[in-house]
Amino acid sequence: DSGVTQTPKHLITATGQRVTLRCSPRSGDLSVYWYQQSLDQGLQFLIQYYNGEERAKGNILERFSAQQFPDLHSELNLSSLELGDSALYFCASSSGTNTGELFFGEGSRLTVL
Amino acid sequence: GQQVMQIPQYQHVQEGEDFTTYCNSSTTLSNIQWYKQRPGGHPVFLIQLVKSGEVKKQKRLTFQFGEAKKNSSLHITATQTTDVGTYFCAGPEKDSNYQLIWGAGTKLIIKP
Q1: A33 vs B103: CB contact, 8 Å cut-off?
Q2: What is the pLDDT of residues A61-91, one digit of tens each?
């Protein structure tokens, strides 16, 4: 158990819809990272937050947005969903701003039909 | 842009054979991390290497960081079924140091 909690574990929705994925980092961790992993593919970095502020942005589509709240949990919002957005979305947390060990949640599997 | 290349993409081995995956970065890395992702699971941190030429062992796993800090390898001796999964390397982005640049992963498959 990494201590990182992601909900929901599975989500099935239709094209054009909007979903929100939630992540609670490990206790004490200030950084939250979001990654996308398509079937049998590598990890695509989306975005990082540190203590409520956006710190780094990867290949995140304009249809996607994220935020980190004062209690440090984070949400990833995916809108105008397309079939290609079907993937496993991982949240990870770490204690600092720089790239130390990441602790990953179990992921949210999104299926867009 | 900065890239981390990882090879091979797949490796099929008989149980008991050795396994090696290699990472090569386009730039010098301040450190390199290795993660393992079991089938259906999430990435789990294995180790971080920081020093030039560093070698670290974890039981049957040996990790190396190259002298130039641009390449790294993970070697597993006498693979077991519990080793099955995808192994990823990752190094910090040179300019920001806020995000990791990930290799594509090497999938270890044990032949039946």
Answers
A1: no
A2: 999 999 999 999 999 999 999 999 999 999 9
